[in-house]
Automatic annotation (TrEMBL):
Residues 120-328 form the ATP-grasp domain. It comes from Micromonospora zingiberis. It is an enzyme of class 6 (ligase). This is biotin carboxylase. Keywords: ATP-binding, Biotin, Ligase, Nucleotide-binding. InterPro entries: ATP-grasp (IPR011761), BC-like_N (IPR005481), Biotin_carboxylase_complex (IPR050856), Biotin_carboxylation_dom (IPR011764), Biotin_COase_C (IPR005482), CPAse_ATP-bd (IPR005479), PreATP-grasp_dom_sf (IPR016185), Rudment_hybrid_motif (IPR011054).
């Protein structure tokens, strides 16, 4: 096993990784910005190094400062968590060139999956279903218009280098495409340094379902079930659950097999996620929501996902431990040929944001009392007295519940939300109380437009 691990991240995911590292007897090293000096992950690490001011570009994305911290502390490996440098192939290569262990997939796999067009083409070649779309960037508006005419409206306009629900727009006709193309291209150049644009068929009613994969040290790729991620605002997830209430055993078998093929196509190692769209099958010209049996590859996230805890609870695993074992060349703690998922798990992302419009609302945490009890887990990045600053993502904690059945998990989530005492920053607990009573959600028959209909 790795002996010392630097966690190149912050907040709840840094704290989460540190917890597993210390349980395994691995020396845990935190890096932090000046703004985060008082957060729990800094205190709970065996050693902590300040790598710069609040601006992420000068701290959590500062590769030179992070590598200098690794060298000065004698770190053997680096875990990037999610966000920041986690899907930066150049950083992964630099880490390995420095003689350190990178806890993640190889840089080539990150590069291959980082470009949406390249990823689509690779998946299609591997036999993974992809939605109708362009096989190369739409070089200009004329090319975009031509592609849309061939694909058929409505279309999704996507930044090829984008991710996290950013850099996307929907065009229902030529006029809308003219606007969206320029908007997405400008955003992509500004945010990602790459203005390449992909045109893809847009499906008005879809579910967002993803598969957790793990590329083992011996070269095998295994699938650890699916997660339903359709409760979204601005194309970003708020709730995840496993298993998906929309996935039949037959569809699950096809979905998991396709995810394994996706991983094998890029010689994937370590944890990753294959994201897909589930599209209602057409019957007699109408959408039959009960028969959502067609799926298309959306993208691959070459890192640990925010929502990994629901998979952990259903499979009885610690995915961070499995990541460390793969990186160290060790076998997994489980038998890949005898996976035994049980029960149901739901995750709610507790954000510092307005529960109506979902706009950020940072501030000092005056009250923070986490719910407890059977089947209740909280992965938090803050404690009472901490300040949620405007410099980073608004995620404060993840409330995860598990039970034998979905209905029991929902009941447990209702109680946990009611018991979570939180005051100071704006927060979305009131939204979750509303969602957990919503008939669409409780029935399991919902899609990515659920929040829009609620609001």
């Amino acid at each position: 096993m790795i002996e010392s691990l630097l966690v190149a991240n912050r907040g709840e995911i840094a704290r989460r990784i540190i917890r597993t590292a210390r349980r395994l007897g691995v020396r845990a090293i935190a890096v932090h910005s000046e703004a985060d000096v008082d957060l729990p992950f800094v205190r709970e690490a065996d050693e902590a190094v300040c790598v710069g001011p609040a601006n992420p570009a000068q701290s959590y994305r500062n590769t030179e400062a992070i590598l200098a911290a690794a060298k000065s502390t004698g770190a053997q490996a680096i875990h990037p968590g999610y966000g920041f440098l986690s899907e930066n192939a150049d950083f992964a290569r630099t880490v390995e060139a420095a003689g350190l262990i990178w806890v993640g997939p190889g840089a080539d796999a990150i590069s291959a999956m980082g470009d949406k067009i390249n990823a689509r083409n690779l998946m299609a070649a591997a036999g993974v279903p992809v939605a109708p779309g362009t096989t190369e960037p739409a070089a200009d508006l004329a090319a975009a218009l031509g592609a849309a005419a061939e694909i058929g409206y409505p279309v999704m306009v996507k930044a090829a280098a984008g991710g996290g629900g950013m850099g996307m727009g929907v065009a229902v006709d030529e006029d809308a495409l003219r606007t969206e193309y320029d908007k997405v291209r400008a955003f992509a150049e500004r945010m990602f340094g790459d203005g390449s644009v992909l045109i893809e068929r847009y499906f008005p009613r879809v579910r967002h379902v993803e598969v957790q994969i793990l590329g083992l040290a011996d070269g095998r790729v295994v699938a650890l079930g699916e997660r339903e991620c359709s409760v979204q605002r601005r194309n970003q997830k708020l709730v995840e659950e496993s298993p998906s209430p929309a996935v039949s055993p037959e569809l699950r078998a096809r979905l998991l097999a396709a995810a394994v093929r996706a991983g094998e196509a890029v010689n994937y190692r370590n944890a990753g996620t294959v994201e897909c769209l589930l599209v209602p099958r057409q019957r007699d010209g109408k959408d039959d929501d009960a028969a959502a049996e067609e799926f298309f590859f959306l993208e691959m996230n070459t890192r640990l996902q925010v929502e990994h805890p629901v998979t952990e609870l259903v499979y009885g695993l610690d995915l961070v431990e499995e990541q460390l074992r793969v990186a160290a060349g060790l076998a997994p703690t489980f038998d890949p040929d005898a996976l035994d998922p049980r029960g149901h798990a739901i995750e709610l992302r507790i954000n510092a944001e307005d529960p109506k419009r979902f706009l950020p609302g940072p501030g000092v945490i005056k009250t923070w009392v986490e719910p407890t009890g059977e089947g209740v887990r909280v992965d938090s990045g803050y404690v009472e007295g901490n300040t949620v600053t405007p410099f980073y993502d608004s995620l404060m904690a993840k409330l995860i519940v598990s039970a034998d059945t979905r209905s029991e998990a929902i009941a447990r989530a209702r109680a946990a939300v009611a018991d979570f005492a939180l005051a100071g920053p704006k927060n979305n607990l009131p939204f979750f109380a509303e969602l957990l009573e919503n008939p669409e959600f409780t029935s399991g028959d919902y899609d990515t437009a659920l929040i829009t209909r609620m609001r």
